[in-house]
């Protein structure tokens, strides 16, 4: 026997992964795998992903693999109609992949998944008509995602949400005529967003806010006649912003004449 027939192929002896592999030696010889780089038996997500990306027809065979990462990556490359049963996989990473791939009409059973990231994926893809089912989710990130997608007419259902970040999203999306619903929000960050988008009458009211950055945000939207009162504001930034607007108004009137 020549040395050429007895010498192990590169990487096989070093990694010890090819021995007993169902794909050896056919895949190795056909360059469909590379020990240390694209290998289904490795405990490396990157290597598994490279293997299945090159060999998508093999992915379905690993949907029930004992290694969670192999199942998760296999779910990414398997036909969608083969991954339905993984909606209840014991590993949340596998379920997250499933939630990003299922047809939207199949997401209903994942609305109450115990994992936040799974529910976030569902909230990002659920049809608008079903988003109200997540309004009471215990995680504010889910409710904030819902707030970003809800039709404008349903946003008022979240103006009393207990979490500031959710109300900030609502304040950024409510129609201007409805912003008065958040004008007295206990959080100045929410009121500042309201002030930035307020109609003139509401903006004039917010010029009296106790927080200076809310007053500053209201300056650009408030009626010009309401601004001189703030020329004596204790905050320099507000006095300067008011003076700029007054000067712009005077210049505009001069040009019109």
From TrEMBL:
Q: Which Pfam families does this entry report, sorted A to Z?
A: LRV, LRV_FeS
Q: Which InterPro entries match?
A: ARM-like, ARM-type_fold, LRR_variant, LRV_FeS
Domain LRV FeS4 cluster positions:
18-60
Q: Which Gene3D superfamilies match?
A: Leucine-rich Repeat Variant
Q: What is this protein called?
A: (Fe-S) protein
């Amino acid at each position: 026997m020549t040395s050429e027939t007895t010498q192990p192929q590169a990487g096989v002896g070093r990694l010890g992964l090819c021995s007993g592999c169902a794909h050896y030696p056919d895949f190795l010889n056909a360059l469909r795998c590379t020990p240390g780089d694209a290998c289904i038996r490795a405990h490396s997500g990157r290597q598994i992903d490279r293997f299945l990306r090159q060999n998508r027809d093999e992915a379905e065979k690993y949907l029930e693999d004992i290694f969670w990462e192999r199942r998760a990556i296999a779910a990414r490359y398997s036909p969608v109609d083969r991954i339905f049963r993984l909606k209840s996989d014991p590993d949340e990473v596998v379920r997250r992949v499933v939630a990003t791939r299922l047809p939207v009409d199949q997401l209903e059973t994942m609305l109450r998944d115990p994992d936040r990231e799974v529910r976030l994926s569902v909230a990002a893809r659920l049809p608008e008509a079903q988003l109200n089912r997540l309004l009471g989710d215990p995680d504010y990130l889910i409710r904030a995602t819902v707030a970003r997608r809800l039709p404008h007419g349903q946003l008022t259902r979240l103006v009393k949400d207990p979490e500031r970040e959710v109300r900030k999203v609502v304040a950024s999306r409510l129609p201007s005529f409805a912003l008065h619903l958040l004008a007295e929000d206990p959080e100045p960050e929410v009121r500042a967003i309201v002030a930035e988008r307020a109609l003139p009458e509401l903006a004039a009211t917010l010029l009296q806010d106790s927080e200076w950055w809310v007053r500053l945000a209201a300056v650009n939207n408030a009626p010009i006649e309401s601004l001189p009162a703030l020329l004596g504001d204790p905050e320099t930034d507000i006095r300067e912003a008011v003076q700029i607007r007054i000067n712009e108004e005077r210049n505009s009137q001069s040009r019109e004449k």
